[in-house]
Amino acid sequence: MDAKLQKLAEQIGVATSFSDSGAQKKVYHVNEDVVRFFCGELGFPARNEEEVEKSLKAFEDKFWKQPFENMVVMRQDKPEVLFALPARYTADDISVDLYEKERQKPVTLSYFCQPTGAEKTIGSRAYRQWRLVWQNDVKLGYYELVLHAGAETFRTVLASVPLQCYSDADVESGKLWGFSLQLYSLRSRRNWGVGDFTDLMNFAKLCARYGADVIGLNPLNPLFHDFPENASPYNSVSRLFLNPIYIDVEKTPGFTVGLLPNLRTQIEEAKKGEYINYTKVYTLKMKALHQIFESQKRDVAYEKAFKNFQKEKGWDLHIFATYQALYHEQCQHVWGGCRAWQAELQNPHGLAIENFRKSHPREIEFFEFLQFEADRQFQEVQKAVQKLGLKVGLYRDLPVGVCKDSAEYWCDKGAFMQKSGAGAPPDAFFQNGQKWCLGAFQPFALKQRAYEPFLKVLRANMRCAGALRIDHVMGLMRLFMIPDHHNEGTYISYPFEDMLGLVALESHLHKCVIVGESIGNVPEGFMDKLHLSKIYSISVLWSERWHNESALFKMPCDYTEDAFVSVGTHDMAPLKMWWFGYDIELRHQLKMIDEKERIGAYKLREADRQKLLDAMDYNRVWPEDKPRQGNYLYGEAYPEGLEEAVHRFLGAACSRVVMLQPEDIFQVQKQQNLPGTDCDVYPNWRLRLPVDLEDYETSSAFQRNVAAVKRERSK
């Protein structure tokens, strides 16, 4: 690769090579065309030598030509800001004002400015770098920093950020436990075929009765109104709002029992089956909610609260609702989503959209109403959780990206990579990587926008949350991106220190613990950085092994302290499915592995069964009244009490929080999501739990597994 292209790529954060997460750390060298493409995608054209040279110069001169970036992220342990000015200015010419950003209240602080010694000449103009040092503490928060240099005035946003994320005293004390819940999968005798916010409230009451303090949730963001079967919660149309499918229609003000006789048969039909029929459930709920919306039988206080919600959410809510109303109209005759709309509909601020808003006010307001009611019910859950005394409460999940056919992308295209999407690099399971096509922020656009799009997403998902799981937390440092027109990709770097600092600041402002999902290709030293920043890691039983040829399971005392621990995740086989190897057979049936790989996987699983049994034996965690009768190493039977033993094993872990999955408790033998497949291949995100919520407390499986964890967490 040309040396100058290599230099440009390194400076702007385009990886020219990378290694995978395998034991052998295979190195991949990136196609030069892919490197050139991403340089251009980041705003630095590199199609030929001349463009590379111009882009190099533009990048190197960028710092000097404007005193500040649009946001300066300053850690409290290093209260200083670097800036550049024309060399004609001296210290006597420089003064600084600081204002609290929200209230524009002046802040009185002592400071001094001094040259760093760095200088640069661009054309005929010389520049000098300065250091602004605060001599007393700048409290956590956002400020407007105003720099006066002679007759010139320059402004930026200063974010004063902590060294670490918010740390809850109850979490730090350790020994907490809770449940990881796919809310949609909750069965109850009262819901309409999908778990809803009333189910969540009832589940919180159940947790309080048994001493659980954490309820982990799947992402709750809205999906496609017109295509309910696009059910992946990690492929939403906006990370700023909620999915109205979780609304309890019968708890919506304006609902009357007179609606039920016409709906009861349809409700019972929608509740049938092992898998959720999203089209039936969603259509039914929207029909009822639209009748409530049009009936206008809601009281004055409710209407006032709705208007206040519209005002509070402002443009973000209105343009999201506009997108949904417009999408609903366009999908009747345009195939290909919002990116296939005619040009005048691509600009959310344009005249065509303004005319649509004026001509469809009622349709738009209906979607605003859905968000208001979802938010109102979700807040009721949060209030109940706080009143019940759950120490962490709701533990929400923030997806790494957003659907490129989404409102979030359509409303603010400039914040996103335009011609590429996030995916995954090659690994042992997917030799060619995975092309998720998720919309991802453009790192230079984020900095230009003072990180506003990123902050909006953080704040929306910290709402009503005691903890937040950041999906693929490595995305704060780098994301694997793949061009839309190509199947090969590479890593793109993000302003890690800035984004880490902003996550820490928002966590303090919202009193929200941060958990980072870091399963995958983790950069060297990355986990140490998360630990120093007080971002809790996620540990799963299957990956907690000693990294040697034996690959034995770690003992509970060897687990990471600052971690949320579980048997697996929604992307992994539940315990009983794993034991029998049904996940191996499933991948073979779907031609994801060949016969040779299938045989090898079964042999490895046989060895892993023995290692799991050995770990349970060594730690003496088998139920005393159900001692193990045999090894069953060939999967010919399921060891009675295995899930209890595993939960006692994890309960003894020195990690701060242990999470139980209902799928393990109730011996589910199917996977909730099979990575690398769409719903036409495998019914992802549709599997209902086998037991009604009302029957949990009379279930011996529930009682025994909860008791197993509580026994160990109380020691």
TL;DR?
With 715 residues, the chain is α/β, with parallel strands linked by helices. The protein has 21 helices and 22 strands. The radius of gyration is 27 Å and the shape is globular.
Write up this protein.
The protein is α/β, with parallel strands linked by helices and 715 residues long. 37% of the residues lie in helices and 18% in strands. It has 21 helices and 22 strands. Strands 10-11-12-16-19-20-21-22 form an eight-stranded parallel barrel, surrounded by six helices. A five-stranded antiparallel beta sheet has the order 13-15-14-17-18. Strands 3-9-8-5 form a four-stranded mixed beta sheet. Strand 6 and strand 7 (125-134) form a beta hairpin. The N and C termini lie far apart (59 Å).
Morphology = globular
Oligomer type: single chain
Give the strand order of the largest sheet, numbering strands 1, 2, ... along the chain.
10-11-12-16-19-20-21-22
How many strands in all?
Answer: 22
Terminal CA distance reads: 59 Å
Structural class, judged by helices and strands? alpha/beta
Summed over residues and divided by their number, the pLDDT gives a mean of 94
Low-confidence stretches: none
Describe the main β-sheet briefly: 8 strands, parallel, barrel
